[in-house]
Specification:
It contains eleven helices and four strands. By secondary structure, it is an alpha+beta fold. It has one domain. The relative contact order is 0.19.
């Protein structure tokens, strides 16, 4: 559905101010697109486009035993992360969705290639996917996405809207960091389970297992203790390529999506009190 947040600056400012004063806010994630920014929480998502539209939706629930089971929980989280792309109106067109889903599934079958081709093919697919995702204005909007989420965490949303605060465009939770972890883990599984002659389904199974293990490592890296934070350094360095310094209008687009998500989150809190 459409939201009037972007077309009503006063309302947006009120939401940002309420969020700045909130005792706690949900953890946010996001995704930059060539034409806008997606922001997600555990329950909601919003896509703010460059032409002023806002599209909203809900995230699938990941509760139950499966949602807490090691390995499985990470795969469910990855699957739910593409919800805005698959279901979101205005986020991606039909052909683009098919292309993206195909690019996401393809790496699972690279294990079936001969050893000498698998790693180069995996790197090539990853580079091409990142290049496709980061086309157009995406690099600046990617930096804006990080800045808007950092502003929510620092409670400087209003200041970020006016440009008085400029949080970092680099994020420890960026998907670029996940890719930087996934490549060596996949290479390790490839060396440990040489399945060049195995059926494609077995090869895909090993690829899924490698992805699940990477998600568990990803969660461990994000632990507040910070013991594994050095593993993020390659991904943070790579973000110098996958992001650009956003202009204020780029940041405001991302903040509009943040406001849409947080408005609904704050309403739930108010209803429960």
């Amino acid at each position: 559905m459409h939201s009037g947040v972007l077309s009503a600056p006063g309302s947006l400012a009120d939401v940002l101010a309420r969020a700045d004063g909130a005792a706690s806010l949900p953890r946010l994630g996001g995704m930059a697109r060539p034409n806008g920014v997606v922001i997600v929480s555990e329950r909601f998502w919003a896509f703010a486009s460059l032409d002023g539209e806002v599209h909203e939706g809900t995230m699938p629930r990941r509760g139950g035993v499966a949602g807490r089971a090691p390995l499985v929980r990470g795969l469910l989280q990855l699957a739910s992360s593409v919800t805005p792309l698959v279901k979101g109106r205005g986020v991606a067109r039909g052909r683009e969705r098919l292309l993206l889903l195909g690019a996401l599934v393809l790496p699972f079958f690279l294990f079936a290639l001969p050893d000498r081709y698998e790693l180069p093919a995996g790197i090539a697919v990853t580079v091409l996917l990142i290049a496709w995702l980061m086309r157009g204005r995406t690099l600046r909007l990617h930096g804006a996405e990080h800045r808007a989420i950092a502003a929510a965490e620092a409670r400087t949303l209003r200041a970020a809207w006016t440009g008085d605060a400029r949080p970092s465009r680099f994020s420890p939770r960026c998907g670029t960091n996940f890719v930087a972890l996934a490549l060596p883990v996949t290479a390790l599984f490839d060396a440990t389970f040489p399945l060049a002659a195995a059926p494609a389904v077995a090869s895909a199974g090993v690829a899924v297992l490698a992805l699940a293990v990477t998600m568990e490592l990803w969660k461990a890296v994000q632990h507040p203790s910070g013991l594994l934070r050095p593993l993020l350094l390659p991904g943070l360095a790579l973000q110098r390529v996958t992001t650009r310094e956003p202009a204020l209008p780029d940041t405001q687009v991302a903040l509009t999506a943040v406001a849409s998500v947080l408005e609904r989150e704050l309403e739930l809190v108010a209803q429960s009190n």
